[in-house]
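User: Could you check the structure of this?
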Amino acid sequence: MTTQKGPYIVSLYLKTNKEEPAMVVWKEEEEPALSDIMKKTIAECVNNRLTNELLDNPASVVVRKMDEEYNMNEVASYILDKETLKKEFFQYIKMDL
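Assistant: Sure, the predicted structure tokens are below.
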């Protein structure tokens, strides 16, 4: 896979108890691999106090590439199932200890 220089905007959507889903967005300079997205998803959810939402629900992620005129084109989208997210979360906790 060839990676083009960014910026890439990664949007994470999590279901919550409210009507609206929670959204976390971050910027990457290179197109992120799925493993990087998983790690960053866990870190962003912990930082934004969305741990319960993360562990209870699947998440969807959309990666968009921004051009010079700030237009964004979707380059990838993923559904992260909650079992995989839980496993990744507990790995993150072990690394943090």
